[in-house]
Structures are given as structure tokens and as C-alpha cells.
Design brief:
The protein contains 4 helices and 2 strands. Helix content is 76%, strand content 8%.
């Protein structure tokens, strides 16, 4: 069996798969209606695209210094991509945001939601957690009675 041909085939399959994921992520950013669905499309597909592209380059490079640099680049991307997506989502949450809401006829329509100035994303999360805890406590009292 020709190992060189197998390595090239695996490398090209990973490179083409990574390019396909990146292209799908780019199209998702263009086609999705609001910031949250755009972030979802971009973050998931571009991370997978980067993993496949860098993996294909690592297979092609073999055990060299180039592969070590590609591994470091991959770790850097795997740590920074989720952090940047989270930061973008937090910024979108604290600012006036446009979300989609289903109307009675089933069509998604944009709906603007304004947060009070004194309330930020952490305050919203704390309020929701307190509300859930109060609901859980009320549920426990009902189950004991």
C-alpha cells in the first residue's frame, strides 16, 4: 500500500471538509436573520472548519516543526473562538437588541427589547436565577403538602 497516497488523500479530504464548513458558516452569517443565529452559524462551523483545515495541514506536514506550530495555532483558536463568541453575545445582550419572535401566523418577526439602563446582563442572569430558585422553593412546599 502506498502510504504517501493515503496521507495525501486524507489531507485533501480534511482540507476540503474544512473549506466546506467555513463556506457554510459564511453563508449562515449572510442568511440568518438576527445576531444570535448569525453567531451560532459562524462560531460552530468556523471552529469545525479551522479544526479540519489545520488537521489536514498537520497530516500533510508530518512530524515537523511546522506541525508543532499548527498545533499551537489550533489550541489558540480553540480557546479564543468560544471566548470571542461569548463576549459578542454578552455585548448584544446588554445593548438594545433585536430578537425574533414568532407571530400568531407562524412568521418570525423582529422584536426590539430594551433593557433598563441600571440593569446589565449579569443582573438579568441573577434575576432569572433568583426567579428559578423561588419557583423551585414553591414547588418543594407544594410537594410536601
Amino acid at each position: 500500500m502506498d502510504w504517501e497516497l493515503l496521507r495525501d488523500g486524507l489531507s485533501w479530504a480534511m482540507l476540503l471538509g474544512g473549506a466546506a464548513f467555513s463556506l457554510i458558516g459564511g453563508l449562515g452569517v449572510l442568511r440568518m436573520p438576527d445576531i444570535y443565529t448569525r453567531m451560532h452559524a459562524a462560531s460552530l462551523t468556523d471552529t469545525m472548519g479551522a479544526i479540519l483545515i489545520l488537521g489536514g495541514l498537520m497530516v500533510q506536514g508530518g512530524l515537523t516543526l511546522v506541525t508543532a506550530k499548527l498545533v499551537l495555532t489550533l489550541f489558540f483558536l480553540l480557546f479564543t473562538s468560544p471566548v470571542s463568541t461569548h463576549a459578542l453575545a454578552a455585548a448584544a445582550l446588554t445593548d438594545t437588541r433585536t430578537a425574533l419572535q414568532a407571530r400568531d401566523d407562524g412568521i418570525l418577526a423582529p422584536m426590539e427589547v430594551d433593557l433598563p439602563e441600571e440593569q446589565d446582563a449579569q443582573g438579568v442572569a441573577a434575576d432569572e436565577a433568583a426567579h428559578r430558585a423561588a419557583g423551585d422553593a414553591a414547588g418543594d412546599k407544594e410537594s410536601r403538602a
